[in-house]
Amino acid sequence: MAARCFCPSQSLVLGGGLRTTLVHTPDDSHAAVLLRVAAGSHDEPRAFPGLAHFLEHLLFLGGRRFVGEQRLMPFVQACGGRLNASTGARSTEFFFELPAARLAEGLARLQDMLLHPALEESIQLREREVLEAEFRARAADLDTLAEAALAWAVADGHPLRDFHAGNRASLAVEQAAFRHALAAFHQRHYRRGACSLVLLGPQPLAELQSLAAQLARSLPAGAPPRRGAPPELLPLRSTSLAMHLAAGLPRLWLGFVLDGQAHLEPAVGLLDWLLGDESPGSLLARLGELGLVDGLRLRLPYQHAGQGLLVLDFSLVDAGAETRALVEAALFDWLGWLLGTADWNVLLADYAAHLRRHLAGLAPLERAREWPRARGPEVEAVRALLAQLQPQRLIRLCGAEELRGAPRLAAGFTVELAEESAQPLPSRRPDWRFGVTARAGQPLLPPAGAAVELPRLSGPEEYGALFLRWRPADRAPFPALQWLLRPLAGLARKQEVELRFARLGGDWQLSLQGAGAPLPALLGEVIAALREPSAEVCAQGRRLAQAELRRQAAELPILRLLGLLPEYLAMGELPSEPAEAVSPERIRAGWAESHWDGLLLGLGAEQRVEVGQWLSALPGTPCPDGLPLPALAEGRYRRDLPMGGEQAVLLFLPLADRSARGEAAARLLARCLEEPFYRRLRSELQLGYAVFSGFRQVAGWPGLLFAVQSPWASLEQLVGHIETFLHEVRLPQGEALEALRQALPAALEVPARLAERAAQAWQLHLAGRPLDWPERLRAALAELHHADLRAVHQALLSQAGGRWLLTAV
Questions:
Q1: What is the pTM of this model?
Q2: Which of the residues are catalytic?
């Protein structure tokens, strides 16, 4: 059953070969582009691993008509847009988002770079160092290592077993044979018939087609080269492996090798949706109730010509053999139920509705990327997939700190692996069920009495967005409460409402967004659960907190620093392991001393009254005027955190002048610095792969953020490079500055999509800003002079608003 889309779209072939999908999104202010080339790492010459990935990088550095700061990457960054690319096994994707009025300019630059990659040896030598840094970062990435270990287990001769990431040793830039192979690969594969395009924006379909046709005409004619059938994935070299982890939670990866699968991605999409269900009776909920699993992800890291490697990634409570066997048994019981008992008419109809809602809620870039994959599957394709999810096609991989093995080279990465004997599968046969839409028993009734009113934005009655924030007196119960709400989040999702409970610096945030009719009753369920948590849930709290710290320990250093920054700013301290378990009594006592505020968007009059009645029972003391933003201490602060691995630096400079004019100048300065910072630290100094900067609001505090992770520079060198850049950068003037200023207002507009509009309003509330703040910023931006830019730059250099530095050593 195909999911009908809410947006007018059209599929056609342009220029005699470019397969094109046009999507008209009238409510968007931005447009998005996805170009997919049917060539990837498995198509490259075996003598030069990483060549396809390297070419992807060189294309962004190339171009003849648009060079320097006019190339696609700096152009999109200057517009306040986003862009990236990825190289897969058999395809390479380029994608970007920018203001809709600049779409034609972006496509012209995409065309220019696709035709003329940077082939100069000096540029290639510099970019090779970037790939070397990326390779080193990936060598510590757990997902990369797990996929490499699974690839090690497939049949000899399959390209999955080969190294494809590319590094300094494999990219022989100095050799004429390599340069010839690089040029030949580009000429052979980057042709009109090997490309597909998704063009998404508010322009009419006829205008989008005209833009796409211009791109099609510019690409060289020709079909993709013929490919032979890939080697077989079976027989497996090994079926059960153990991998040592340097840090992190114990994990169980179950990798299924697939073949003969038509329309694989849509079927996997449905399976991913079902596996992500946390409502009562689901696989994930049952595994949690049994104390086996804390989380589950599904990935499809490889697929081509009907083949696939489908990976289920379980975060385990412990790495014991019995736990692993029970998880595997539960999975196969559930899959058997799904294949033989599930009501497919109901499941496919529900999934089609989910796809429509999911696409509607995505930003243009994500929507364009998912569009080719976001069609509902046919039931035959799903049944064919489930039929192959059998033990004889399974590679078991367990990872934990206590497991040991021998170093092995897997897909070019060193992993510590040992082979294990498979465990027998006990049968549990739980009562799997789906379609649950409400808690059993009588619905809860809102308390009688005076309703609590929140600040509210108008919106359609059929939609609602409710944001609540607590400033808790006791932060220790958070993990237990987050766990408590997971089944309710699953129930909410079945009723078209997204429920989230997350940390926000030193605060807690609850959000309910989606269909308006069920939202008040769901809020009542949440309040009842929060007020009276069970002792069983509380008993999980300390273990969950410990598990979260272990999970964070496995992340890349720069990502860990980004996650820690909000709490560091809010409390001047970092999360630590709880000293003792929480109890229902302790949670009730903590609620009594907590304070809360919130914001509401949309809903009809009847639903608003019911929400207000429920809010009168919300734990904690309401603050009608909003919780004040905690004072941010002035001065210079630095925390060096031992993390192992690469060095990383995160520098946050809060604004000293928080007026509309001061923030507008800071946003403009951040836009002026973004591309030069990236070019200087990543391309010229070659410090590492992860380099970025920009204007950020962190837990309510606006400021400028600078980040870099490096495999070879010391911390002091990284800090010195950032400070040298800030002191020596030349601010743009004249037309260059005016172009950057003209691009900024688009980022300050009130979004048309309700979810984005609600998120923007909530961020303003968190920062203590009035709802018309974007309008004030646009007015201030129009009046800025170069002197304002210099003034905010000087304030930045003097660190007038403070200086917060987090480092990973």
A1: 0.91
A2: 56
At 458, phi and psi to the nearest 5? -70, 155
Amino acid letter, 484: L
Task: In whole angstroms, give the CA distance from residue 102 to residue 76.
Answer: 9
* Rounded-to-integer distance, Cα 675 and Cα 68, Å: 11
Phi-psi region of 222 (alpha: psi -120 to 50; beta: other; left: phi over 0): left
In 3D space, the residue among 299, 373, 460, 501 whose CA is nearest the CA of residue 34 turns out to be 373
Amino acid at 281: G
The predicted-structure confidence for 755-771, as pLDDT tens digits, reads as follows 888 999 999 999 999 99
* Cα–Cα distances in angstroms (integers) from residue 407 to residues 70, 155, 416, in the given order: 46, 20, 4
Tokens of 510: 């609850």
Residue among 261, 247, 498, 277 at smallest CA distance from 384: 261
Q: Where are the beta strands (DSSP E) in 15-159?
A: 18-24, 30-37, 82-87, 92-99
The angle formed by the CA atoms of residues 175, 176 and 181, to the nearest 5 degrees, is: 100
Q: Are strands 701-710 and 690-698 parallel, antiparallel or unpaired?
A: antiparallel
pLDDT tens digits for 598-612? 999 999 999 999 999
Residues 248-274 have pLDDT tens digits of: 889 999 999 999 999 999 999 999 999
* Local confidence band at 631 (pLDDT 50, 70, 90 cut-offs): confident
- Which of these, 688, 656, 666, 701, lies nearest to 800 by C-alpha position? 656
Q: What's the pLDDT tens digit per position in 72-115?
A: 999 998 888 999 999 999 999 999 999 999 999 999 999 999 99
Contact 240, 419 (CB under 8 A): yes
Alpha-carbon distance values, 355 to 279, 351, 757 (Å): 19, 6, 21
Domains and CATH numbers, the chain: 9-218 (3.30.830.10), 249-400 (3.30.830.10), 456-622 (3.30.830.10), 636-808 (3.30.830.10)
